[in-house]
Amino acid sequence: MTAFIALLRAVNVGGTGKLPMSELVAMCEALGYGQVRTWIASGNVVFSSDDDAAQVKAALEAKLLAWAGKPVGVIVRTAGQMHAVLAANPFPDAAPDRTVAIFLDDAPAADCLEGIRGRQAEEIRPGEREIYVHYPGGMGQSKLVIPAAAATGTARNMNTIAKLADMAAALG
């Protein structure tokens, strides 16, 4: 069994609608996933499965499509991959609640920082399958738009990433 973290895009924060975390747990259990736990009500779920990451992603996206009536993006990482995201944070001295990783399915393109709009004091660095952003003034005050991540990415701050990584590691 592998411990996975699934990050749902735009659930309970805009675009997709309200998904009770109890319903997300039930969906995951119906797919045969074990030790299912959620973290805060913004589409973060940790579980174990014998499936590989691609199978997990496809199965969850199909379940969520049936629920929402439209596609809901899902990003999947293992516990080890999530810990690696923390370790690779290029802004380790910045406030963890003002630093995010925008999770992507694939590596960011070489030109991923082109076309950025609304940039003020934000610092941005591409990662392995993430784009890291430090928002010195807070994310809520920012007008930053990163086209390479806007359509398919989903952001989590470093506090949430650390908690999810620990939760997944605890599944054994």
CATH class of the largest domain, named Alpha Beta
Strand content: 15-25%
**CATH-assigned fold name of the largest domain:** Alpha-Beta Plaits
Secondary-structure-based class equals alpha+beta
Shape: globular
Q: Mind summarizing the main beta sheet?
A: 4 strands, antiparallel
The CATH architecture category of the largest domain equals: 2-Layer Sandwich
Strand line-up in the sheet with most strands: 2-3-1-4
Average pLDDT level = 92
List keywords for this structure.
172 residues; alpha+beta; Alpha-Beta Plaits; 2 domains; four-stranded antiparallel β-sheet; 5 helices
How are the secondary structure elements laid out?
Layout: E1 2-8, H1 21-30, E2 34-38, E3 44-49, H2 53-68, E4 74-78, H3 79-87, E5 99-103, E6 123-126, E7 130-134, H4 147-150, E8 154-157, H5 158-169
Antiparallel strand pairs: 1-3, 1-4, 2-3, 5-7, 5-8, 6-7
Report on this model:
This protein is α+β, with helices and mostly antiparallel strands and 172 residues long. The protein folds into 2 domains: 2-80, SP0830-like domains (Alpha-Beta Plaits, 2-Layer Sandwich); 84-158, no CATH class. It has helices spanning 21-30, 53-68, 79-87, 147-150, 158-169; strands spanning 2-8, 34-38, 44-49, 74-78, 99-103, 123-126, 130-134, 154-157. A hairpin with a 3-residue loop joins strand 6 and strand 7 (130-134). The radius of gyration is 16 Å and the shape is globular. The model has no long low-confidence stretch (mean pLDDT 92).
